[in-house]
Specification:
Layout (H helix, E strand, L loop, with lengths): L1 H4 L3 H14 L4 H13 L3 H13 L3 H12 L5
């Protein structure tokens, strides 16, 4: 997504939230929103997306987000 590539995480967040609103059952939208939240250092929001992914029976992706959340973030 262009917004992420340009480092515009607020715009990426807005777009992915809209995608989740329109297609809440699409796992990739939740995964992508979670990665944006990681970049924005919004740990609480990442955890919400992790829980959603677990409820969607995608523990593989939830575990990946959990792993990324624990990694040091370089700016």
């Amino acid at each position: 997504m262009i917004a992420i590539n340009k480092g515009n995480f607020k715009e990426a967040e807005r777009l992915y939230k809209k995608m989740v609103e329109l297609e809440p059952k699409v796992v990739e939208h939740h995964w992508s929103l979670g990665t944006v939240y990681i970049s924005m250092k919004q740990d609480g929001e990442v955890r919400k997306e992790i829980e959603i992914l677990r409820k969607m029976n995608r523990t593989d992706l939830a575990d990946q987000l959990s792993f990324l959340l624990r990694q040091p973030f370089e700016e």
